[in-house]
Amino acid sequence: xxxxxxxxxxxxxxxxxxxxxxxxxxxxxxxxxxxxxxxxxxxxxxxxxxxxxxxxxxxxxxxxxxxxxxxxxxxxxxxxxxxxxxxxxxxxxxxxxxxxxxxxxxxxxxxxxxxxxxxxxxxxxxxxxxxxxxxxxxxxxxxxxxxxxxxxxxx
Length: 155
Description:
3 helices; alpha+beta; five-stranded mixed beta sheet; CATH 3.30.1330.40
């Protein structure tokens, strides 16, 4: 299964980065029973925030979707680290919680978080289909435009 996921990643032109270290006093993931909880991931690329600011002000929806895709890539990188390199252990992505830095009258958070949902489902297939939330926030850490956490069922 993991080989199939690696093929999908390659076909999509995605190379998973090393899992990012925590930016404060928390751990990047917790495994409890058959659940993997991944802490909120930012749109990091090359170790830096790639999309910063607020949707509806200085970030448009396509840039927000790209931020969400980067968050999803970083979620997969954390899952790979948590699972000893074997993404095939993911039985199901249960839920993504998406947080979008946005101005008060911006109401397209759901479209922004689609960037992550589409990527996760594209990489993991049926196991990547999940419940989710897409919530507007006044601000996010390090001025990131998007932050996403995840809960996964694992083998």
